[in-house]
Amino acid sequence: MLPAFEYRSPLSVEEALELLAKYREDVKVLAGGHSLIPAMKQGEVCPKVLLDLRRMAGLSAIDPFEDGGLRIGALVTHRDLEISELARGRSPLLAEVASQVGDAQVRNFGTLVGSVCQADPASDYPAALLALEAQVVVASPRGERSVPVEGFIQGAFETALEPDELVLAIDVPRSWARTAAYVRVRHVASGFALAGVAAQILVEDGRIASARIGVTGVAERAFRLAVIEEQLLGREPLPGAFAEMIRGVALGREILSDGAASAEYRSHLADVCTARALRKAISRIGV
Amino acid sequence: MKSHLTFELNGEATETFCEPRQSLLEVLRDELKLTGSKEGCNNGNCGACSVLLDGRVVNSCIVFGLEAQGRKVTTIEGLAEGGTLHPLQQKFLEHAALQCGICTPGFLVAAKALLDVHPHPTEAQARAWLAGNLCRCTGYDKIIRAVLDAAPSASGGK
User: Fold this and answer.
1) B82 domain residue, yes or no
2) What is the pLDDT of residues A174-229, one digit of tens each?
3) Where are the domains of chain A?
4) Cβ of A7 and B20 within 8 Å?
5) Domain stops at, among B77, B95, B125
């Protein structure tokens, strides 16, 4: 059995924020707990207070914005995203990633917001969330703020969240839903991404009018391929046409190197996944 | 300090007391003496502790018992009806889809979750849905064959 902790399950955001302000670093927030509880079992974290979001109203919802975007509450599971008609219709890229996270058991209880707050560099989501330019909705005694996922995730297992802040949701703006794809190479045993690339492109009059590409698993934090996004503008979206610009997309970054994959191999996989993600996104034009 | 916990367990209203730090698996095994769900890795990796929570398969070792409050839990003990084995259990026997047996309750529960959603799964679907359950004996083939063979009778010929 785990070491004892004080268990609190507030009913409102205000109540939760009071607890966070009071206990600060001593409190851990529980949503699905699929990162937190294993870490507690390993003795890596030992919270004095556990703040369970389960009874707070509204956090289990996937809500549509009028402009075509989505708000995904802190208790929405990977499986909820995978099967939600709303999510599949408005952000198939995110639903596609959700369907590939972990295994069935993990998808049924683990949450998108929990995964982002964990900031595991091998997590699948950041690639898509960067490509989608998603925002993290953060509440604190000072009010609510929205932080781009790109800035929210600051490093391996590091976020911009202050001890008295609580993530309520992730907002996904209206996207060019149908021409996006996520491609990864996963570690055979753990299932985590050695490299994963999400791409979405907008085609107008037969030319690429906009492109967003996010890369995860390769460096300490996910990153955008801003240079390639720029180079793609105005080009014809032909499958496999961009091989010359996809060489060493991760170069210049601190590339992860561990027992699962060397830096050189991860760098290679980043190129491979980028090419495949672009090809797959392009193949979906007009589908 | 123990908290009061009420939920539906294998179709029956159930109440017990548990500590917030107890996993659902610990509540089932230690408080309610239902030892069918197994503790394998106890860390969310192996699936031996799989139970259904509101119809979805979860690893009960990394879900706190209190999370079951007001919800429906199905364990391996809830699969057979009276003295009649669930078709999955019957086919696991016929296909010899087990050796040591530790992973078997988890596989059966996870396979039930699969057949509840996809009554006629493809082999690829079955393998994907059962990827969270580890077996170190069988090599999985017999398990997959048993699940696919159980599908017609589990769906009542539909």
Assistant:
1) no
2) 887 678 999 999 998 888 899 999 999 999 999 999 999 999 999 999 999 999 99
3) 6-52, 62-172, 178-283
4) yes
5) B77
Q: Rounded to whole angstroms, how far apart are CA atoms A283 and A177? A: 13
Report yes or no: A142 at the B interface, CB cutoff 8 Å: no
The answer to whether the beta carbons of residues A150 and A157 sit under 8 Å apart is no
Closest chain A C-alpha to B22 CA, distance in angstroms: 6
| A6-52 placed in CATH 3.30.1360.120 | no
CATH of A178-283, one of 3.40.50.2300, 3.90.1310.10, 3.30.70.360, 3.30.390.50: 3.30.390.50
**Cβ within 8 Å, pair A3-B132:** no
Q: Which residues of A touch B63 (CB under 8 A)?
A: 33, 37, 109
- For the stretch A110-148, pLDDT in tens is 999 999 999 999 999 999 999 999 999 999 999 999 999
